[in-house]
Write a structure and sequence with these properties.
alpha/beta, Aspartate Aminotransferase, domain 2, 7-stranded mixed beta sheet, 3-stranded antiparallel beta sheet, globular, binds pyridoxal-5'-phosphate
Length: about 375
Amino acid sequence: MILCGNPQAQYLAHKAEIDAAIQAVLDSGRYVLGRDAEAFEHEFAAYVGVAHGVGVGSGTEALHLALKACDIGVGDEVITVSHTAVATVAAIELVGATPVFADIDETCCTLAPALLEQLITPRTRAIIPVHLYGQAADLDPVIEMARRHRLVVIEDCAQAHGATYRGRPVGSFGELACFSFYPTKNLGAIGDGGMVVTGDATLAAKMRLLREYGWSERYVSHVAGWNSRLDEIQAAVLRVKLRYLDSDNAARGRIAGIYNVALKDCCGLQLPATRPGNSHVYHLYVVRSDERESLRQHLQRHGIAAGIHYPLPVHRQPAYSSRFPASLPVTDRVAAEVLSLPIYPELGDVEVSTVIDTVLGFFGKS
Ligand SMILES: *Cc1c(COP(=O)(O)O)cnc(C)c1O
């Protein structure tokens, strides 16, 4: 089976280094928020180009913590997209705030800035643009709008580690930015992990309190917090993998380039677009077809596991649909057509050719 993503291949590619890093944690006796967690916070924040990194338990927790740090809660509205991982929306509801859904643009499937203004109310506090599939949302108009209305911008970078917007890494634009290190992400741990990065020292200090019971010193809670810490073993593995992030992203880009050339004349298939000024790190290689379901089954029969990100937009999911009956025509159309072809740094050329031939075969072109 050719998988859509393959975290095990990544482990095997760096097995000796990862095994050694894990063994070193076991030998150190510090298993939570130790030397590796602290070092990784510095290294990853430096990679993104911001001053502070606060490691947490997951990407969802990173968003939760970022919203809490801004005192966003009951009665507040946060604008984001419905075409995203449910985590983006779950985090908004975790703090008691209300998600407000913006539709997306047809070509890149990220938040459509032109539709933002009409969603802003006196209760709006923040905008969460999601850098979906590996490329940045159109940030300039979002940030301009946020400034004008005094809103916080929290970037959801869970699918875009290393992607740039106008030459600068995502995560360095918003007041805060949130990353996930779930195993399949471009920078993935061997379990859960996440981080909030920010240039604001006060917000960073506040998040360090909140993520560990509000402790200002051990056993003394300065504010009411909870527990969401970055695990030491995950941090040690992530330090190893961070060294390969740029070359891994380049490998993804190379595979995407092969798909782009081989599939460009395949009518019936819309290939992923990269917005001018963006570098795309291809967390996913997402094509669109109005025959999505039969194409997916055809690939499945030929041993290729294509994914769907995501089959149901959040506002259509049972947990949300009755509470957020939004009208999002582009989101609905895109959700019905997207299909993620296999892409990960270790995916071999033979497998890439097999995927291409099988897709072309479906459209009667092989
Ligand atoms: C993966 C993901 C998250 C959540 O990350 P977890 O680590 O799984 O909690 C949030 N937003 C987006 C866009 C994601 O893809």
